[in-house]
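Render this sequence as a predicted structure.
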Amino acid sequence: MAQTYEEMDAIAMLKADHRKVEDIFAQFEKATSTSKKQSLALQACLELKVHTALEEEIFYPACRAAGVEEDLMDESYVEHDSAKLLINEIEAASAEDDFYDAKVKVLSEAIEHHVEEEEKRAEGMFAQARAAGLDMDRLADDMRARKMTAMEEFQAGKPAEPRTLQGGDEESAMSEEPLAPEANPVA
């Protein structure tokens, strides 16, 4: 019997999200009408925006604090930001626009690579997080609560906000908590 989303630990939740987005991209590849393609692309974008929020706000800070490999963490943030740039372009476009299908395909391939990095058996982020002894049930509870609010925010039209590309605030993306205004010295 399959676990419900409420019974999953943090890694199981993230993997379930990965499978859901992979399925949406597979449906996109098979779709023939532009309206169906646009609907599926927008669904994938919404799911990815919520997923990246959960990872960046809850899971990644816990991984970084637990000592998961720094380079892997940094690459994950940049991979997210690359995806966010494509997500914002896809959401602003029409399925009839030039390069629309290509942008969705490149996003799909980027996510596929990112998922492989996270899910590698021995050295992937998820394996390192488990080995570090993170409390996956507590993280799952935090992620479930945030998922509801994130879904509302992104359904209301909030764009994906890159943190490490195009002038994003890299320091706040890399810390567990946002920097207080007084912690940012003026140059």
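Summary. The chain has a mean pLDDT of 89. Residues 13 and 151 are 15 Å apart (CA to CA).
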